[in-house]
Amino acid sequence: MQSSARFCVMGEKMSYEAVIGLEIHAELATRSKMFCACPVVDPQEAAPNTAVCPVCAGMPGTLPVVNAAAVEYGVRVALALGCEVNPRSLFARKNYFYPDLPKGYQISQYEQPLARNGRLVIHTAAGEKTIRIRRVHLEEDTGKLTHLGPDRSLVDLNRAGVPLLEIVTEPDFRAAEEVRLYAQALRAILRYLGVNSGDLQKGALRIEPNISLRPMGSQTFGTKVEIKNLNSFRALERAVAYEIERQAQRLEAGEAVQQVTMGWDEDRQVTVLQRVKEGEDDYRYFPEPDLPPLVLEAAWIEGLRASLPELPEGRARRFVEQYGLTAYTAGVLVEEKAVADYFEEAACHLSASVAPRALANWISVDLFGLMNQAGVSAEQIPVPAAELAELVSLVEAGRINPGSGREVLAEMFRNGRGAAEIVRQRGLEQVSDADFIARLVSETLAEHPAEAASFRAGKVTVLNWLFGQVMRKSQGRANPQIVRQELEKQLGNQ
C-alpha cells in the first residue's frame, strides 16, 4: 500500500501525485448545545433521547440562540492556528435530508465563516511542512443512527445540536503520513486549549479527507473522493493510502474516478461506497433567518489572544532549550498536555546533578510502557511526579542500577509506594564496595575456570557471560561499572 508523497504507476510510464485536503469536525466541550440549553451528555452513558428539547428536535416555531461559550472556544482555536478572525460572520442553512437531522437542514457557516487563512506546521520525515487552513467555522452536530438491519434503524437525538467546529485545510497534503501527522498535531492543540476531549472513539473528533490524483506535474485537480467519519489515526492513514492506490488503479485501467462519499471498512481494510457526493449547490445554502450576524469586538478577540496557553509547538521548542532534550523526545512529551505537565513537575524535584533528559527517557520509555500495558491515560498516572524524580535521582547517583530501578518503578505503579521505601525494604541499594565486588569476581572465576580460560584464549564475548554471573551472584546489586572493571583486571592478571 502506497503512502509516499508521489504515487507512481509504471504500467504505461504514468506517474500520479496525490492531492489531499482535510476536514475535521471537533465537538466543542461546552456544557450546553449550540443553539439551545440542552446539556451535552456522554453518548455512551446517557439514555437515548433524554437531552432533547423542541429547539434541537426541530419543532416548528422554535428559535435558536447562539451559545457564547462555543463562540469563544471557536475563536480560541482560530487564534491558536494563526487565523484571521472575522469580526462579522453569518450562520447559514445547509439543506439536506437525513433521518438524524431533525430540522431537515443544519445550521452552519459558509460564505462568511468565523475565521480564515490559518496554518499549522507538521514535522515529517522529510522535514517541516506548513499546511494552510482555509477556514474555521461553527455549526451544529446531527443525531446518531443505529442500524439494526437493512430496513430498521434507531435515532438518538442526544447529539443533535451539539456545537461543532469544522476546520478545513487547503489541499496541501501529498501523503497519508502527512494527513496523520496534521490530525495528531491539531488534536494536541485542541486538548491544550481545553475545548475538545480528543476522544476519537466517542466521536469527539471526526476526520474526513478529500483525495484526488493527477498526473505528475499537472496543476489541474482530479476528481476528489471524500472518506467520512474516520475515528482513529491508524484508520485515517490506512484509508488514505488505500484510496490513493484504488484511484491510481482505476486511472491506469482507463476508468474515471467518480465524485462519491466513501466509508472505511476496518475489518476488510478497504474503502466502501456510501453515496454519490453532493455538490455545494445541492445544499442550497442561504442565510439563517432566525439568527442575526455574529459580531465580535476587536478588544474581546485580542483578550482571548492574550489568554492563549503555551501550545505544543512552542512548548517543545522550550523543552529543547531549557532541558536539553532532543527535538524528538520533546515532541513525544508535549503531545499530551498532562504528560508535559507531569514532566515539568518531576523535573522540579530532580537532584541538581541529574540531567532532565534522563527523566524524559524514563517517562517516554519505561513509564509509557507501564501505562500502555495497564490502559492508563496521562491524566491517571499513579506514580506521583516527585516520586519518579526521586527514583531517577537514585539511579543516576548509582545507588540502584537501572534494572532494579525498573523493578521499583513497576512496584510504584502498582501500589503507589515511594521509591526510597521500596529500595530499602527490598534491599536493592547498589553495592559499590570494591573489596566486596573483587571477592564476588574472584569466586565467579573460580567457579567457571573453563570460561575464564576461553576468554584468555581470545574469545572476548565470554566476558559478558561472566559479567552476568557476577551480577546474578550479587542479586543485581553490584555496581555494573565496577564489576566490569574488576573482571577485566582479574582476567588480565591471572
Can you walk through the features of this model?
The protein is α+β, with helices and mostly antiparallel strands and 494 residues long. It has 15 helices and 17 strands. The strands form four sheets. Strands 1, 2, 3, 7, 8, 11, 12, 13, 14 and 15 form a ten-stranded mixed beta sheet that branches. Strands 6-5-16 form a three-stranded antiparallel beta sheet, with no helix packed on it. It has a two-stranded antiparallel ribbon with strand order 4-17. The N terminus is likely disordered.
Mean pLDDT: 91
What is the helix fraction of residues, given as a range? 25-40%
Number of helices: 15
**Multimeric organization:** single chain
* Count of folded domains: 3
- Counting helices, strands and paired strands, the structural category is alpha+beta
Cα gyration radius (Å): 29 Å
Strand content of the residues, in percent? 15-25%
User: Biggest β-sheet: count, sense, barrel?
Assistant: 10 strands, mixed
**Shape assignment:** elongated
The tally of beta strands, per DSSP, is 17
Which stretches are low in confidence, meaning pLDDT under 50 for 5 or more residues running? 1-12
CA-CA gap between termini: 60 Å
